[in-house]
Amino acid sequence: MFTGIIEDKGIVTGIEKDEKSMKITVRSPKIVSDASLGDSIAVNGVCLTVTHLTKEEMTVDVMPETVKATTIHQLKKGDYVNLERAMAAGGRFGGHIVSGHVDGVGTIRSKKPVSNAVYYEIELPKELLEQCIPKGSITIDGTSLTIFGVSDTSITISLIPHTYSETILGMKGIGDQVNVETDMLGKYVMHHLKKLNAKEESKITLEFLTQNGF
């Protein structure tokens, strides 16, 4: 489990690809300092397992489904990646509940400085947009962010200077793709409501939920 608070920007020092899977080596002395074989590390929001360690680098395996479903396959040697270690049981919870299981890929459609912030409009697949609400949480390339705008095709998020400089999102521009994980609690609620509404005897409607304080 992760929080979406990026701990370091690592640099990709090696990539091995076969027909369907990958091995990625990343240099990050900070992350490696207390890592062990088998640990879970979020790389651009993707939960991956450490399979090899040196004093400054770690190697992670990427299985075929992850290669297909995320932007990991776009990485190349020299690229920077967002890194976060799994949350310690006694640690501070600074972001929101993040599983590291990417739901889909979004595309940056606009990037605009506004005062001390930078606004990003990110186009999302329809099924992900249905899980997004204003002021809700979302994870973009592993970074916990707040949605402050939702349209028929996209969401808008805002980066403060610290997030802009300390994550790889500041390096990304129009047309670039990002890994997206929607809010876990929202996904469960939507899933169960859809199942209930699929039953003819269900009385749960949007009006019913509103009347009962939801």
Automatic annotation (TrEMBL):
Residues 1-96, 97-193 form the Lumazine-binding domain. Homotrimer. This is Riboflavin synthase. It comes from Ureibacillus terrenus. Pathway: Cofactor biosynthesis; riboflavin biosynthesis; riboflavin from 2-hydroxy-3-oxobutyl phosphate and 5-amino-6-(D-ribitylamino)uracil: step 2/2. Keywords: Repeat, Riboflavin biosynthesis, Transferase. Transmembrane segments: none annotated. One of its GO terms (biological process) is riboflavin biosynthetic process. Signal peptide: none annotated. InterPro entries: ATP_synth_asu-like_sf, Lumazine-bd, Lumazine-bd_dom, Riboflavin_synthase-like_b-brl. It is an enzyme of class 2 (transferase). One of its GO terms (molecular function) is riboflavin synthase activity. Coiled coil: none annotated.
